[in-house]
Predict the 3D structure of the following.
Amino acid sequence: MGCDLLILDDFGMERQTDYAREQVFNIIDERYLAQTPLIVTTNLSLNELKHPKDMVEQRIFDRVLELCVPVCIDGESLRQEKARQRMQLYKQITNP
């Protein structure tokens, strides 16, 4: 919690155990109370963040949405493009 900027990557993909959810809440709540910078990346849609499944998610997501400015970055997955390139290379190598 002592860092100047915290970046949470792939938020929402952590294990859905009570312990994990509690730890995520504690981290985000401390950042929220201290009003310290937070960057969150997630595959969750803005709609999913605004309409959580339960009270724990609501408490977490509300704080994230207050601390962060949502920016939607749409486009094709870079992983899928790299996989396509590898497949093309494989085909070239195996079909001379």
Observations:
- The two ends are 56 Å apart (CA to CA).
- The first helix runs from residue 18 to 34.
